[in-house]
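Shipment paperwork, digital attachment
Item: protein structure file
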Amino acid sequence: MKNIFFSLSLIISHILVSGQDQKLSLLQCVETGITNNLQVQQSGLQVQSSEIYWKQAKLNLLPNLNGSISHGINQGKSINPYTNSYINQNITTGSYNLTGGVVLFNGFSLLNSVKQTSLAYQASKMDWQQAKDNITINIILAYLQVLSNGEQLQQAKNQLELSKQQVDRLELLNQKGAINPSDLSDLKGQYSGDRLSIINAQNAMESSKLTLCQLMNIPYNKNMELEMISTESLATKYEDTPDKIYTTALTQLALIRSADLHELSAEKGLKVAKAAFYPTLSFGANTNTNYSSAASQETLINTSTVASNNYVIVNNTQYPVMTQVNNYGSQKINYGKQLSNNRFTSFDLSLRIPIFNSLQARNQVKQSQLILKNTRIIASATRTQLQQNIEQAYINMTSASDSYKTLLDQVSAYSESFRIAEVRFNSGLGTPIDYLTAKNNMDRANINLINAKYDYVLRTKILDYYQGKPLW
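Attachment content:
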């Protein structure tokens, strides 16, 4: 899925850069922005880091096993590691050790650490989702702004076309001397003003496109076109109330879930800190052996009868006392046999009791308590801020809806007034002032209606976001 998602973003980026006449949907813009956004990418890396900490905390429950090997050369007088006696010769030695141990009890510090890091990992995933939500809302706002500016640009072009038609008509009449020249000057002034409106609308259009491209982190493309969005919601009333939206948001919004998970993680962190006051019971095992090139053993070769220094006298004659002597030969002990003969194994239970550690444990508990208090404050403030934002968004949505409905009536009324003023002006009964006043009123009402329409759509999108509803 990641590869598909990444490929999609590359295709979209290529389309934008190459300037092809391809319309982008709101979903495509959001997906591209999420893929390319720096904060989203960094949040994703933080999720991976938190997962590693969580897995390591679980692995810390397993026994530890360590081995060591050492080899050396001794010259001169040294101790033979095989006989533990002094010798004066060059020897080579080897030592091999394998040590293992496991913590049986340490105030449940390891278990609470697993729970703490697990909650932190889940919180980081919510933070990642919140980063995605933030860029999504910003892209929706920019997307709607492009559409709004596009409609305003089209409205400005329509205004210019009306003015041009009147200027062309009055120029013909002025050539025949059928009108007051000031009437033509007034219409030319209006025509220049409409041309200036197009320039301003075009600039606003390109600026909003640039903002959208920056949010998607892609090169700016003036030929970018966007799909229109449905405006069916304008005809219906938004049914959900602020209280219902808030209740739903508490269970759906990543921002709230992240704050709650950080608070739970801090609670486990406090338990980890308090575990430092408890004794630690550990079980350990050790086995080692060694080797020495000086190691040798005496082997019986034969037994011979020889005269000793003692003697006996028989009839005044000395006869030596014969004795048996065992003859031994020195033989090197081979490497494998030394490792087997010198092997030593031990097992132990150790209890470490904390008595005084410069009050580190106590101060660590205090720090953990402060962290917990801070996460609780943040969780509470987040809920309060969310409720305030929902209430404000609902008020803005209601106001935008009422404004849109009122502006619909205003556009209808000013359009009728302009139609009458245009008929009167074309027939010579109306003045340019009456015509221009009616035209400007209609143009201004149409621009305001476009702004109100997209303002209402934006407000409903924000309320939908709070409830976890699809935004496209």
